[in-house]
Amino acid sequence: MSVTMVPESSFEAPARPDQVVERAPGGQRSLLVATLALGVIAPIVLLLHRYLPDGQKLLARPVSGLAWWFQPYPLLLECLFAASWIVAGAAGLWPRFRPWVWHYGPLVGAALAILGLWDLITRKLNWMPLPYFPGPATVLQALLDDRAVLFDSAWHSLRLLLCGYALGLLSGLISGLLMGWFRRCRYWGTPGMKLIGPIPATALIPLAMSLFSNAFLSGAVLIALAVWFPVTMLTMSGIANVPVAYFDVARTLGAGRLYLIFRVAVPAALPSIFIGLFMGLLTSFLTLMVAEQFGVKSGLGFYLEWQRGYAEYANVYAAILIMAVFFSTILTVLFKVRDRVLAWQRGVIRW
Length: 351
What we know:
mainly alpha, single chain, 0% strand, 2 domains, 73% helix, MetI-like fold
């Protein structure tokens, strides 16, 4: 067997931060586009909102008695306008800042363009009329006006979600572990899981409300049921598919049953278990919203249905915005935990 030596000169030193833009597709041209996206789109959106006449005459939440530069939405655009030029100037002065601008500039510019398009087709041109399609200024005003109620609703939703998810996670891990390790448990448990698991938890709302007089408890049980099935399924599958060679090596070294389960099987099945955790978390979001709208009279789902009943669609969009941030943050935390536990798989699935 021959060994080929690679000359030391063939290895390239890692690129410095200021070289990332130079080696990226398009090079300096990409940096120019990213800088323009930050420095040009923001003032265009601000000028359109300031000088283009309003097509929606009956605003849901007029802000009277205040100059336009003190209103929330124009003030936000002013801040974005100032920040965009500061960032564009920083990209020209500090080379180490350019990779950040090159990467995030087009994304921020696209977000500003979407915001301006939303304002244009609703408030300015009235192509999507009130009350169903308010402009971003009206939604932002509603978000600020009802911030206390929205915060309280988000807190109630978080409590219910965490309680239900923890209950479903614990029961799913236990049942998945038993069914994945013991054949007899898998023999008796698989038919019940196949029968009950595919039923949407939201279909069992009348039954849960009949069994539990407490609305919070019934909502937590429904969320736990929605989480239990994917966690059980993926945990069982992960443990049952651990290579036999792992157990043979551990037995050779004198490992007992508990060691084989918790030090060999469970760590080897963690990638599959985390997939079940993500699937359970996504189904718990849906179950949370439905449970709050029809059973639990609190939380973001209840607030959304309550405001929709009064045709306050600006508040509805404000609640949806809070939900997006709320659920995305929880998913991000779970991804951080996964990257910490499965450090050897970091970067395989990104969020």
